[in-house]
Amino acid sequence: MVGAGIGGVTAAVALQRCGWEVTVLERAAALGEVGAGISVWPGAAAVLNDLGAKGIDQAAALSGPTGLRKPSGRWVVAATHLGIDLPVMIHRAQLHDLITAEFGPAVTVRTGYTVETVTQDDSGVLVNGSLRADLLVAADGLRSVIRTALYPQYAGPQYSGYTAYRGLADVKANDGGETWGPAQRFGIAQLIDGRTYWYATANQPAGQGGDLAAVIRRYGNWHDPIPQLLASTDTALQNDIYDLPLPLVPFAAGRIALLGDAAHAMTPNMGRGACTAIEDAGALAKHLTATPDLVTALTQYDAERRPAATQLVKRSRQIGRMGQLENPVAIGARDTLMWVGGGVARGAAALRRKR
Ligand SMILES: Cc1cc2nc3c(=O)[nH]c(=O)nc-3n(C[C@H](O)[C@H](O)[C@H](O)COP(=O)(O)OP(=O)(O)OC[C@H]3O[C@@H](n4cnc5c(N)ncnc54)[C@H](O)[C@@H]3O)c2cc1C
């Protein structure tokens, strides 16, 4: 296993459960995740529950309304009564910890180990010219060296045109959802530990940076509780947003499988990147268990996961483009469409409830 992000550690637990001896190679000096909140959608929560990871089943106590608002606070779409699934919101480090808590004696972790070269033949894979394995799972993220080695012609990460900020406020917000303004968005979600996770996006060139002061300048006069949340936040993380170009490369090459962002990094607009990595891990273990021939099992894994991930990359990118619109006329048309769509969805949900 190369990479001990959420994808790599989930795959390590999943492979351990079906009898593999797993070595996790991670270039960082220690295991763990930085970051703020993360959404865990039902499909990923089901995989984690199957793997025995405990603690994701307590759905966030969403006490107030959620949906889509304008910076003034006016609702465009109220989602609370649409009858749609909502994710569990959890701190990223807590999610990582509850997965690694399932590591047993079959999992060995080597931190401070950077994979630079990978070669393979019919009998196995060779890492950095010295470590041999039957199977290599590349969970080494957006800038995967293994994906680049396998597919040197593939263009690799492309910049979305916007950056994202994330932070944790030490207060409980009574509502959630997203607020869309011109070329910038702000999202609020309650974590299961009682704190409030917020995130925000803004159009800007890659590499420009940004901090909490920039967030306060941009969103500090938006509707309540945004100013209060920012006032209760110590620091903000900032990441330029990239995804991988379509078509995605195959997730299987001989005895090597790509997993998570290494295979399908997507913009975070649907909050699905890590969830898709978790689902990849479940699918990989399933095919390796069901199909004795390893190369065939990886081909089946690719056939199952690549189409699903492609759809998510595409839809996440489209949502980002809609959300980051700058032209007021286009924004007006978008908001009207969403308001009408929200009404139709609300009506359909009410009908479903009556049946
Ligand atoms: C702002 C933002 C918000 C997001 N919100 C959500 C959300 O709410 N829900 C959700 O599901 N997803 C979300 N995502 C996406 C999610 O963060 C990623 O999809 C997920 O973390 C990818 O996990 P991964 O394990 O595939 O890769 P990574 O987390 O990138 O892990 C890769 C690991 O590999 C290691 N590594 C890299 N190269 C090497 C090497 N050569 N040798 C050894 N080790 C190496 C790295 O150090 C790292 O630990 C968000 C992303 C962003 C940017």
From TrEMBL:
Keyword set, alphabetical order: FAD, Flavoprotein, Monooxygenase, Oxidoreductase
Annotated Pfam families: FAD_binding_3
Xref: InterPro entries: FAD-bd, FAD/NAD-bd_sf
Origin superkingdom: Bacteria
Entry's Gene Ontology molecular function annotations: monooxygenase activity
Organism: Kribbella yunnanensis
Any coiled-coil regions, as ranges: none
Cofactors named for this entry: FAD
Domain FAD-binding residues, every copy: 2-158, 250-316
Name under which the protein is recorded: FAD-dependent monooxygenase
Keyword Ribosomal protein: no
